[in-house]
Design brief:
Butyryl-CoA Dehydrogenase, subunit A, domain 2; Butyryl-CoA Dehydrogenase, subunit A, domain 3; 4-stranded antiparallel sheet; 10 helices; 9 strands
Length: about 400
């Protein structure tokens, strides 16, 4: 099949620089030629295509907008466009890049010591090392401030106890950025695979994000040296700051999933005949296609403006929350509509909308649920937080 041509009804591409368009097209080709031939089997098997990680590193797709040793240092808008192309392939592919870049490299670059940056950033950017981010616990999802995982001082070390659940890349990770309660408030630790008392487990039975590694991190008296604590991460706002970066990428990424659903439904509707005519000729089918394209176009406008603000150093939580909330719900709606247009064929893995639909059920929950983002924007405009 020919490479994806893009969905750009309002010609937003005209507002992109040559560099931004060039990166987008390179990633588009990578997804079409290298990832899409693999995704069906990985989704079935419940595995991530680890063989692509070095290639993603070489292309600058890991931590693409991070500034630091060995990092690509591209613009925020370029990072968004990369996420969009990756998630057109699968939310699991974008998740891998989001976690590695926004949730592992970003906190190291922002809160880490010079030694931590020199040691980890080049390896993570190249994909030679893999990271994960442990904030959520079994009893504390939307309310991470209640975390039970804790660390106490013992000489020059910390003794870490507790567990983290629902962690992307958990079983593949060489290093986990782990958030724990300490006498000094919430702190971040770089917990390395092989440290005594640190184990990981796989979560089985997911119907969503199957081409992604999701697991549990368990800490049983893990001795972590002070040199593995992130020195500038002080309090709950440190992990919440990382979330802003990842939510930004998700708000862009899901446009790709929606665009793939729209593109698939449009092609199918043009070819599938019922009552002696292509189903695309029926008014109700056209209404669904127009609704999808309109919502995708609105989401693209939101994302591009958010990207330009970020590149001007403006990335406030409520702006990112509004885009994450709107764009994920939009993408899930597009996936369900595309599935409907495909009729029975839409419930098989021969077509992508069913896979995107299942994936987006996770994306609407992780990185702050749809409702939590409603409350973040609600608190901003009323001045009255309604979380508790
Ligand atoms: P609250 O009192 O509001 O805030 C505590 C301090 O943090 C600051 N803050 C932020 N700073 C930067 N970025 C943000 N997004 C921030 N949100 C809050 C805040 O200003 C305050 O600072 P200070 O100086 O006053 O101390 O805290 P709260 O406990 O009331 O919680 C607020 C709430 C509910 C919004 C927050 O807990 C929240 O965002 N909950 C959702 C949890 C969440 O999103 N978890 C995601 C886990 S990671 C994940 O899902 C990865 S999926 C990856 C993938 O595969 O792609
Ligand atoms: P809960 O917080 O129990 O929420 C359940 C329901 O209650 C939701 O509808 C929610 O909106 C609602 N609710 C909760 N509080 C309120 C309120 N105050 N007002 C109104 N409604 C409310 N976490 C990580 O730390 N790292 C990862 O890498 C990671 N990867 C993930 C990968 C996958 C595939 C999934 C599914 C999750 C992942 N998560 C990760 C966890 C994710 O961030 C949490 O699932 C999410 O924050 C929600 O927490 P919860 O599942 O405990 O739901």
């Amino acid at each position: 099949m020919a490479d994806f041509q893009g969905v750009d009804f309002y010609q937003f591409s005209r507002n992109l620089s040559d560099e931004e368009r060039g990166v987008r097209d390179t990633v588009r080709q990578f997804v079409d030629r290298r990832f899409l031939p693999l995704v069906r089997e990985h989704f079935k098997a419940g595995t991530f295509p680890t063989e692509l990680i070095p290639e993603m590193g070489a292309m600058g797709l890991l931590g693409s907008s991070i500034q630091g040793p060995g990092c690509p240092g591209l613009s925020g808008t370029t990072y968004g466009l990369i996420c969009e192309e990756l998630e057109r392939g699968d939310s699991g592919l974008r998740s891998f890049a989001s976690v590695q870049g926004s949730l592992v490299m970003w906190p190291i670059a922002t809160y880490g010591s010079e030694e931590q940056k020199e040691r980890w950033l080049p390896e993570l950017a190249a994909g030679r090392k893999i990271g994960c981010f442990g904030l959520t616990e079994a009893n504390h999802g939307s309310d991470p401030g209640g975390m039970e995982t804790h660390a106490r001082r013992d000489g020059d070390d910390w003794i870490l106890n507790g567990s983290k659940l629902w962690i992307t890349n958990a079983n593949m990770a060489d290093v986990a950025v782990v958030w724990a309660r300490t006498p000094e408030g919430v702190s971040g630790f770089l917990v390395e695979r092989g440290m005594a008392g640190f184990t990981t487990n796989t979560i089985h039975g997911k119907f969503s994000l199957r081409a992604s590694d999701t697991g549990e991190l368990v800490f049983d008296d893990v001795r972590v040296p002070e040199s593995n604590r992130l020195p500038e991460a002080k309090g709950l706002k440190a992990p919440l700051g990382c979330l802003n970066q990842a939510r930004y990428g998700i708000a862009w990424g899901v446009i790709g999933a929606a665009a793939d659903c729209y593109d698939t439904a449009l092609r199918y509707a043009g070819e599938r005949e019922q009552f002696g005519k292509p189903i695309a000729s029926f008014q109700l089918v056209q209404q669904k296609l127009v609704h999808m394209l309109t919502e995708i176009t609105k989401a693209q406008g939101l994302a591009l403006q958010m990207g330009r603000l970020k590149d001007d150093g403006i990335n406030p939580t409520p702006i990112v929350s509004m885009a994450k909330r709107n764009n994920v719900a939009m993408a899930l709606d597009c996936a369900r509509t595309a599935r409907d247009i495909l009729g029975a064929a839409g419930v098989t893995d021969e077509f992508s909308p069913g896979r995107h639909m299942a994936n987006l059920e996770s994306v609407i929950t992780y990185e702050g649920t749809h409702d939590i983002h409603t409350l973040i924007v609600g608190a901003e405009i009323t001045g009255l937080p309604a979380f508790r």
